[in-house]
Amino acid sequence: MKKIITIGVFLMVCIISVFAQPKGMGNNDPEAKKILDAVSIKFRSFKGVQAKFALKIENAAGKNLGIKTGIVYMKGTKYRVTITGQEIFCDGNNISTFDKSTNEVTITKIDLSANSLTPQKIFTNFYDKDFLYKLNQETSVAGKKIQEIELTPIDKSKPFFKVLVNIDKATQTISSTKVFEKTGNKYTYSVTGMNTATPVNDLQFVFDAKKYPGVEVVDLR
Prior knowledge:
This protein is an alpha+beta fold. It has a single domain, classed as outer membrane lipoprotein receptor (LolB), chain A (Clam). It contains 4 helices and 12 strands. A 12-stranded mixed sheet has the order 7-8-9-10-11-1-2-3-4-5-6-12. The protein is globular.
């Protein structure tokens, strides 16, 4: 479960932080393109982002397996994700994943190879190459107009087959995402608060071992 949550949080970073301006849309919905363009432009206007979120996990039978809360900080290609039991730091060059239960941090170099998913790719052309997307119905949630966009991975070997992204029409920001895995599990990420006015210090994205007494460092760079 821990690995799945890590992948899910990473996907949350992708979706909440960027819908990079699409290129070569192919058969994608032009109305969805307009919305994603607007979200991208809006996000690029922020100098930094702090967002609180909740992660709800459901099994194939629809049973709630629990809710985790977290916070993500973002600035350019740098990010930091804190969720129950785990922290992920990316300073633009290295990724440090801290596991609280084992008091261990694993440090890896960002892989720029063509076959890997890197923050650089996520912030450039990740979606237009790997997903098809379309605009679904517009709904009203707590008095807010929500636009739902459905993402479908082109690569059918992915562990998930669909992602639903809800966008607040008024603010042009992501309000929630829902990931559907082939196993039947569902992961819903809801943004519970966002601050784009306060600058984010670059030190937020660097793992400082001095702040974690006795931590075991596994350096794979």
